[in-house]
Amino acid sequence: MLKNRKSRNIIIISVLIVAAFAFAFAACGGGGDSGDDDTPNEPESMTTKSALQYFYDENVKAGWNLGNTLDAVNVPSAASETAWGNPAATQALINGVKAQGFDIVRIGCTWIGHVGGAPNYTISQARLARVAKVVNMVHNAGMKAIINIHHDGNYTEPPNTWGFLKFAEVERGEANEAQVKAQLTAMWTQIANYFINYGDYLIFETMNEVHSGNWGGGASDAEQDRLFDWNQTALNAIRATGGNNATRFVAVPGLGSTEPGIVLAAHSRGKLLPNDGANGVSKLIVSVHFYAPSAYTVASATPTQGNEPLRHTIETEELANIDTEAAHLKETFFDNGIAVYYGEWGAPTDVRSSMDTEIKNTHINYISCVAAAARANGIVPIIWDDGGEFKMLERSNGAPKNGLWKDTLTAMITAINDTTDPGDNNGGEGVNLGSYVYGTAENGIDTNYQQAVWSLTSANVTIAKTAETKLVLKLTNAPSAGMQLVWQGPTNEIWWKAADILDDYGVPVTGKGTTWNASAKTLTINLEAALEDYASFSDQPNLNLIIAYYGSADISALGITSATLE
């Protein structure tokens, strides 16, 4: 569906392709690449919060795409920052973006032509350094940053002219999937290691718009299953580097256009979010692209045969669908403690900038409606700005030109600021405890994977000791074996006060204030009723809460998506 959005650039760069070329890999820069390494020398701070809580507490509510820049590529030679007509990013540009009211910048990163051959798939240090320099610009301006593997998986014709994520070729049996996954692992290992000391303001996004030619529409379950597997491969590589990357926020897309329907369908089958171990889903973000209706947003302004022409009117029911789609995402993700952002959305502002007043007003209203719906449903909207048809800001200074560009930006930011967000829900009406860590075996050294441990902050200790407080766990899978609720008082060296709350079959123990809601998949535990020696518990200045589950070798089998005190 989104192919037309970039078709103008594809046509331009196709003309520029030369029949033969040669370049030295170590010097494959282009478009402002620099070998200077100004990454942090020591690990920067990382939050223990979930992505949802982090976005709320950090007031991340509006984002901007540095589009057609570090993602631009001279096919089939190399990604080059200026290949598609935009200038190289500067601090002046990024400062201007911040001044317009944005909080987060998505930096699409294409790596074609900057990667060596098998088996190491070594990424050019100059390319990594240039991406780092732009990330630093964003951080210096006081915003969060997202980097990804962007156009290395585009479906284009002829085959094999773009990146290594050859989804269509693998589907047809023309490419080796093991080799694709090996390169995906190698590249994310290198990217993650290069950025390992960056703080929580840097978010990784596994891939972008990978599909077999159908943009995800009408794709088979097998196709989504394959992307799910590739997302797991990327996440595993990132987590394996350790350090800050063990808990870094990672955004995960759906298939192709990753529109709401595609994402929701995948999630309903358990084939969207990969297994993130002890992090549960607290460190994952669902990446959705919203370009509905496509005829109004991404259809071709200069259609050729077979392409859908761009429409400049929008129906009432199409506007209503904006709210409906956002509400479905909230119900499925936000209400269950999972963060969502619109990694791309928008409409061709530049195209309509010279059209009549009615068309302009319709455009402004559309942008306002999407922005407000996102905000009202806890979604962070990150608008697509390609510097061309979808241009909103000038690349020289990050400010919009007078006219439709400025009017659209003003309306969008106003809609976001004037819309009441749903709060820091995190899956319940209470306080989210964040991600758990595994427990420790009796020898004090080895890890006990059957235990989930939360160390309570001083504020949460007070809440936990309040009468009638409940611990509410949202799970992916129903418990089917014994479970204990344990508390520790480290200050007083109280290390194991345990009470059985589920019997050997996963049934709540009578009189322990524990209930299981099968439809909502929530386990609710009244602390006062369930805890062993509640009187001593209430005297503790510091507390750990532990869930010990004996149904598998790893408590992650339960799929704990959130833990809240209510």
TrEMBL record:
<keyword id="KW-0119">Carbohydrate metabolism</keyword>
<keyword id="KW-0378">Hydrolase</keyword>
<dbReference type="InterPro" id="IPR050386">
    <property type="entry name" value="Glycosyl_hydrolase_5"/>
</dbReference>
<keyword id="KW-0732">Signal</keyword>
<keyword id="KW-0326">Glycosidase</keyword>
<protein>
    <submittedName>
        <fullName>Glycoside hydrolase family 5</fullName>
    </submittedName>
</protein>
<dbReference type="GO" id="GO:0005576">
    <property type="term" value="C:extracellular region"/>
</dbReference>
<dbReference type="InterPro" id="IPR001547">
    <property type="entry name" value="Glyco_hydro_5"/>
</dbReference>
<comment type="similarity">
    <text>Belongs to the glycosyl hydrolase 5 (cellulase A) family.</text>
</comment>
<dbReference type="GO" id="GO:0030245">
    <property type="term" value="P:cellulose catabolic process"/>
</dbReference>
<dbReference type="GO" id="GO:0008422">
    <property type="term" value="F:beta-glucosidase activity"/>
</dbReference>
<feature type="domain" description="Glycoside hydrolase family 5">
    <location>
        <begin position="76"/>
        <end position="385"/>
    </location>
</feature>
<feature type="signal peptide">
    <location>
        <begin position="1"/>
        <end position="26"/>
    </location>
</feature>
<dbReference type="Pfam" id="PF00150">
    <property type="entry name" value="Cellulase"/>
</dbReference>
<dbReference type="InterPro" id="IPR018087">
    <property type="entry name" value="Glyco_hydro_5_CS"/>
</dbReference>
<keyword id="KW-0624">Polysaccharide degradation</keyword>
<dbReference type="InterPro" id="IPR017853">
    <property type="entry name" value="GH"/>
</dbReference>
<keyword id="KW-0136">Cellulose degradation</keyword>
<dbReference type="GO" id="GO:0009986">
    <property type="term" value="C:cell surface"/>
</dbReference>
